[in-house]
Amino acid sequence: MTELEKGPTGRRRGRGARERILSASQQLFREQGINRTGMDQLCAAAEVSKRTAYQHFTSKDELVAEYLRRFDPTVLSDVFDRTDLTPRERLLAAFDIPPTTPLCPYIGAAVELHDPEHPASRYARDYKKAVAARLADTAREAGAADPEQLGEQLALLIDGAAARTRVLNADAFPTAAAIAAVLIDNAIPATASDDRRREEASS
Amino acid sequence: MTELEKGPTGRRRGRGARERILSASQQLFREQGINRTGMDQLCAAAEVSKRTAYQHFTSKDELVAEYLRRFDPTVLSDVFDRTDLTPRERLLAAFDIPPTTPLCPYIGAAVELHDPEHPASRYARDYKKAVAARLADTAREAGAADPEQLGEQLALLIDGAAARTRVLNADAFPTAAAIAAVLIDNAIPATASDDRRREEASS
DNA sequence: TGTTAAGTACACCGCCCTGTGTGCTTAAGG
DNA sequence: CCTTAAGCACACAGGGCGGTGTACTTAACA
User: Fold this and answer.
1) Which of A199, B95, B128, B139 could bridge across to B147 with cysteines, CB 3.0–4.6 Å?
2) Cβ proximity of A132 and A76 under 8 Å
3) Cα–Cα distance between A128 and A114 in angstroms, integer?
4) Mean pLDDT, to the nearest integer, of A108-115?
5) Mean pLDDT, to the nearest integer, of A158-166?
6) Are B166 and A106 within 8 A, CB to CB?
7) Is the distance from CB of B32 to CB of A113 less than 8 angstroms?
8) Does residue A124 surpass a pLDDT of 50?
9) At which of B8, B30, B59 does a domain end?
10) C-beta atoms surrounding A101 within 10 Å
11) Which chain A residue's Cα is nearest to B162?
């Protein structure tokens, strides 16, 4: 997309460069953090010359911002678009994704960049709000009394589990899931508990 | 304390150097983060020559470790040693301390250092475990059914509030406190709310 | 064929940062 | 007095990192 194939007649030889850079970013920034990953190392991992990298991204900051923007569609749809689960099960499934994520990249970026006005920090906020909103939507679908509040609470649990997993070096998501179960049961009037009754239940 | 006044006869002229360095660390590391705070700036803020700083701490890593070790007594006793509160109130009071803390320094350090084996990362783990343990003790005192579990859950809420406050740039502790109230009410058998229960009136 | 976009290889600059080397000053003893 | 510890001022090495300049190569066109 973007400017890569918008040449006068449609060249497409170097189609993969930008993708490879972003792909290497996802791996290295997660494994080592943003600040500890130099552009030299990143370009080597992406098998791209440094010169090319700086023709696709004007600065490392811009690359970091793009790196974060990439998660939006991916992570969100993984859990929330599953139609084989009831709304209640979908809410709980959000706590079953830690294996791939050593730490939520958004928390890491916000801490490492340390500037709330950095473009990447803005993306992080947007993403966190989007997650809370989708949780709230699902909570509403599940018939929660106060969906916004439940969504915000569940989002906080996810972030708590991520942070605690990082600091303690031990999986904290089971604890978060246990709390989530309590909150969900408290917030959803005994009407539509679960048992796969995913018809009706709207409004 | 330590090696400063253990000279052959007991000199004490430079008593404040080490303290000033650590004090400046607490301020700067919190405000700017660890990696973004250079030793030059830190020494200037502490009004100490760089040479002196490196005679008290062999490396910046060691200074960071000491900086984190300093919080243990302070933060823990602030909330838990209050005898004017019931155990249940003490558990909730742990969510009333965000004004001074832009972000839990332990989470920040764990993310910035990015090495679980770094001495400072070990202190961070120790501290987090200590907090959970003190919460569990208080939960036991309050008559909770499973104090360890409740302590771990409340600790997760605190970390979640801290992380979310950082990323969203908005205070998330009220949300955490609301969840805490639910968990506490669920975990403590209605019989013994406290010796001093003004009313029940939860929910 | 020539043109043009895309990419490569590699050296290089400037900046900042951790950490040291050196010589000088100050005060507390004896 | 002299000794000794603590500290200061300042320069500087060494390295990493972000970012650039330059010259060369490759492939898709027309």
Assistant:
1) B139
2) no
3) 17
4) 94
5) 95
6) no
7) no
8) yes
9) B59
10) 15
11) A160
CB–CB of B176 and A156 under 8 A? yes
Q: What is the pLDDT of residue A42?
A: 97
Q: Least CA distance to A130: which residue of chain B?
A: B168
> Hey, are the CB atoms on A128 and B167 less than 8 Å from each other?
yes
- Pick from B110, B149, B161: CB nearest A156: B161
Q: What is the CATH number of the domain that holds A43?
A: 1.10.10.60
- Show residues of chain B in contact with A158, CB under 8 Å: 160
Domain holding A136, by residue range, is: 70-192
C1' (D3) to CA (B13) span, angstroms: 16
Residues A173, A96 share a domain? yes
Which nucleotide is at minimal CA–C1' distance from B50? D8
- Would you say residue A9 lies in a domain? no
Interchain pair A106, B156: CB under 8 A: no
Tens-place pLDDT, residues B10-44: 333 446 889 999 999 999 999 999 999 999 999 99
pLDDT band, very low/low/confident/very high, at A153 (cuts 50, 70, 90)? very high
**Statement to judge: residues B29 and B107 lie in one domain:** no
Which nucleotides of chain C does any protein CB come within 7 A of?
Answer: 4-11, 16-23, 27-30
Q: How far is CA B113 from CA A34, A85, A133, B71, B136, in A?
A: 11, 39, 32, 18, 29
Closest partner residue to A163 (CB to CB) among B129, B159, B178 is B159
User: In the predicted model, what is the mean pLDDT of residues B41-59?
Assistant: 96
Quickly list DSSP for B172-189.
-HHHHHHHHHHHHHHHS-
| pLDDT (average), residues A146-154 | 98
Contact B184, B142 (CB under 8 A): yes
Contact B43, B49 (CB under 8 A): yes
Q: What is the pLDDT of residues B133-179, one digit of tens each?
A: 999 999 999 999 999 999 999 999 999 999 999 999 999 999 999 99
pLDDT band at B71 (very low <50, low <70, confident <90, very high): confident
End-to-end CA gap in chain B: 50
- Specify the number of domains making up chain A: 2
Confidence band of A83 (pLDDT split at 50, 70, 90): confident
> For chain B, how long is the longest CA-to-CA vector?
65
Same domain, A97 and A133: yes
Q: How far is the CA of A47 from the C1' of C9 (A)?
A: 12
